[in-house]
Fold each of these.
Amino acid sequence: MSQYSNQNRVAIVYGLRTPFIKSGTLFKNFSSLDLGKMVCVELLNRTEINPIDIDKVIFGTVLPSIKTSNLSREISLGSGIPPSIPAFTVTSACASATQAFTNGVESVLSGDSEVVIAGGVESISDLPVLFSKNFRGMLLDSSKGQGILQKAKPFLKMGVGDIVPDIPAIAERSTGLTMGESAEIMARQNLISRSDQDQFALRSHVLASKLEKEDIFKKELLKAFVPPNFEEAIYIDNTVQDELTIEQLSSLKPLFDKEYGTITAGNSAPLSDGACALLLMSEQKAKSLGYKPLGYLRSYAYAAVDPREQLLMGPAYSTPLALDKADLSLKDMDLVEIHEAFSAQVLSNLQAFGSRKFAEEKLSRTKALGEVDMDRVNVTGGSIAIGHPFGATGARIILALLYGLQRRQANFGLATVCAAGGLGVSLVLERE
Ligand SMILES: CC(C)(COP(=O)(O)OP(=O)(O)OC[C@H]1O[C@@H](n2cnc3c(N)ncnc32)[C@H](O)[C@@H]1OP(=O)(O)O)[C@@H](O)C(=O)NCCC(=O)NCCS
């Protein structure tokens, strides 16, 4: 039996995304708000849903601008959705869009909403960079001063260090380690070789570039027109390399442990900009509006590990929970989409799926989840090739899984994402 009874299933009616673009390149002049509006407007146009029928708008993001802290509300207002429709923003590191999605699902299941737009967005190009705490204090004191002298006085205490910008780090607050350093630990402890990591990265590019040549890919993407002239249409993820070789990958220097490390820019997901949105409805509502959904959510589960352990192992913990709720097993999954933060993290999680020792010691289970058939995993590439706008990836993975199931005429799929903080989420989706 699934987590939800059939009458209450939540349908994913449609979804699409912007191309995912390497930060600092083609989308560098777009903010998260621009990208979110772009995807939301196109979703409304393509589905022809009447905006008044939408009950809620929920986007996930990781690094919001302080000017648009409730980014979803701004996306909603800026996309022509009536002001009377509520919107809120969620954050859960790289699982932000899946969090937005499951919040949307719960809203439908509780009867609070019938129709929800849920997705995620990130612009690393438009990173919110802060002043140092000291300098912010001086700015605040200065703003309270009367007259030019009082306004200038707080700055007399200023030292050179005070004007050094405070750039958000991709590091754990609790351990001080960056994601890359954590992946390095996982590679070492799980004996994932550099060569296996590079082979996996190459596979991601080969599969993603194959898909780009297929027409169905265009269903998933919108055409983005970029400033200043808005003449050039971007219709492809610009990090996918169709002529990449294993020699190129193996020649790259390790970045996080320069002496003995194995994690390089080539076997990591590149920093990227992009947005993805999904239209969710109760199954009955979708039917009554005449939509043929892409698929349905059957179950989901979140899990978390201590960040001082292997940080990006979340999927190995959340997947058995989601499969149990779905009353299905790993071998029932026709396709698996797993977020590729690093090759080492994917290979570590897949290894844990197949390990009885892991099952016994970490999950208190007697049997391993099972070996994964690689012909079913990330069959159209993953975040290493396609890119990883933090807040958007969770929604892209759901979309890729649903289009993948459609392409294979298959039914069950698993989508799973690891995230900073030791978080993991897994979703079981079904097409029929
Ligand atoms: C890994 C990371 C630090 C690399 O950042 P970067 O150094 O700015 O990356 P670049 O794109 O400049 O690549 C560095 C070099 O590798 C090369 N390179 C990158 N990918 C390559 C590939 N697939 N094939 C060949 N060369 C590649 C670049 O051309 C560049 O070469 P250069 O130094 O000669 O110009 C960054 O992408 C990152 O932090 N990724 C992980 C993000 C993360 O933590 N996610 C959260 C996970 S939950």
Note: The two ends are 15 Å apart (CA to CA).
Amino acid sequence: MTKIYSAKKIITMNPARPFVTHIAVKDGKILGTGELDELSRWGEYELDNSFEGKVIMPGFVEGHAHTMEGTLWRYVYCGFFDRTDPDGKIREGVKTIETVVERLVEADKKLKDPNMPLSGWQLDPIYMNNKRVSRRDLDKVSTTRPIGIMHASGHIMNVNSKALELGGLMKAGINHPGIPLDKDGYPTGELYGPDAMTPIGVHVGFNRSMTDSDEDGLIAFGKLCVRTGVTTVTDLAARLTEEGVEAMLRITSEKNYPARIVPLKVFLAATPKETIEFAKSLKKKSTDRLRLGRIKAVADGSIQGFSARMRWPGYHNGAPNGLWYTAPDQLSELYELALVAGIQVHTHTNGDEATEMALDMLEGALKKYSSPDHRFTLQHCQLADAAQFRRMKKLEMCVNLFANHHYYWGDEHYKLTVGPDRALRMNACKTALSTGVPMAIHSDAPVTPLGPLFTAWCAVNRLTASGRTQGKQEKITIEDAMYAITLGAAYTLHMDDEVGSLETGKSADFAILEEDPYLSDANELKNVKVWGTMQGGRIFDAKNL
Ligand SMILES: [Zn+2]
């Protein structure tokens, strides 16, 4: 049966017909958009006026997030900013290391099993005068229970002495770039990079690997999607174990699962050849709501964690250069094999040296195996300069910029990490667009909260947490930002023929809004309320999840 929905305004992103009043849906797809009279000519229909006062947009596409956020909400929230949880409750941020410890002490008291690990997430010492947390701070919570807190960047973890002991690291003189040592020669308890974090992670509750969500987590993450208008979302660095894929297939196929998940197999702990073969075999298991068969590579760490790879002159505060997560020859081999196999690769680069390396490796690979429409995408790519955007254009790459960073870490980038000059060019949305590089913008949830309208607000205003505008030349218009969170992101996933706009034949995926983002004051964009979503013709009310 055809259903026709009326709305105050329907923003289609279809260039031939950008704004309409009615949309017809049949079998989970869009039959057409236009006026009621036009749509009624398809034959019998049922008119639904329940969205009469609302604004309908294409369901938002989040091109860089991690479903693990759903799981993390079961751990102790140690973030600096207030944040909305999957049930819509606002959780208060913590402002000092002492308060982090207090919050952990409270959580510790509630745990009955004395051996059960205690886990926290979203810590960011950069807001606390960059005072580092040590194993001694966490030993105040417990010396018998292993404790671990993941940093907001996901690239650093703090653990207590018990956790170090269980992981065999509570000894002097360890020589590892990801394991800094205290004056006493023992590890400080701060662990950098997957190499250092993974073996200890298993003892502190991050035992499913840092990147996986479990079934309850996936369900919780689905709720966050509805609350933020997201209908297609990536899980950008998943291990995708057999068991993990089975769970994802099971949960996403449930009648009421509200989002389409696009997990990317992370290139880690396997050879390029194995990874490509694995992605090829996964691709065959894809369903409408679970899209498998893409790969994510990670070139470096994070800028605020000083683990990103920087070109000259390096970090503004003199911190040593960051870490390579993937060696250049490994990335090169992965690109070559992926181009031949027709498998898409997204590559995390934060520092400009990492971006340069990825560009060099892809250029070399394309010389050997040119591939039309490969859409290899640089993820974050925060510090790219104009010349690097020109190279991306030449190599037909896409970019997904981390717009939310302006707000969350913009002040720190200005003061500490890269300094005033380079801070202005971070996440250069305007340059990407004027150079003609297909662009998306993202939250990298859980690194920052999922919410495409907020991400759009960041790209449009470029305000930092302290209220400064950082890089006004790189601001983009509301129209461009709305494109970036719909078709822009869909394009980077090779899915712009299915989602990202409201056009005949595409999936009936809507973000249903209380107000019109096009008419909002640029400053108010983040306050536009989301009523809920439609995904594949199914309606989800954010107040009733
Ligand atoms: Zn990420």
Note: The longest helix spans residues 352-368.
